[in-house]
Design brief:
Length: 96
């Protein structure tokens, strides 16, 4: 049984403010969850392979490659109304 003192302690660690009503409610709910976990401990899983996911999907990784075109950067620089300095846009920000 998870008592209210334990719920308050966990809530404090998680920096969650709980009302007295919520503490009472969560105490009962957590007790049920941990009770169910005790039931699951009785299941024989010796011959069951560990799984980290069940969808069968795999991550796809591709190498990042930088592709630059001189004409692209020149076209972009022609579009700006800001001042240019060594083929770069000069950006100034005001300090308030």
């Amino acid at each position: 049984m998870i008592d209210e003192k334990q719920v308050r302690h966990v809530a404090k660690l998680a920096r969650i403010a709980l009302t007295d009503e919520e503490v009472k409610k969560f105490s009962g709910q957590l007790s049920k969850v941990f009770g169910y976990m005790e039931i699951l401990k009785e299941v024989d899983t010796k011959n069951v392979a560990e799984t980290s996911q069940v969808t069968g999907l795999n991550d796809v990784f591709e190498k990042d490659e930088l592709q630059r075109s001189q004409s692209d950067s020149e076209d972009l620089l022609k579009c700006t109304e800001l001042p240019l300095d060594s083929n770069q846009v000069r950006v100034m920000h005001a300090i308030k």
